[in-house]
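Structure tokens please, single chain.
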Amino acid sequence: MRDLKAYRIRVYGKVQGVFFRKNTQVKATELELVGTVQNLEDGSVLVEAEGNKAALDKLLAWCYIGSPASDVTEVKHEEIKSVGYSTFSIKR
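Here you go.
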């Protein structure tokens, strides 16, 4: 994949128990991104996504809105080294 980039995105607020992970997976797949999404013990959600920068930026913008039932209060992100994911999966 040309211009492969990777982001680690941390999303805070009411983001667990509101189908945030599933909706993130659907959006990332729609954008042809690969990676993972998981709930963290502090109540936030961690997203690691890889793909082209334009698609990553669209996913990042979507994270500020989130799933219909979520209430996002803060989003932090950083560019990271690509891991080489092959799909976008939900970590349990």
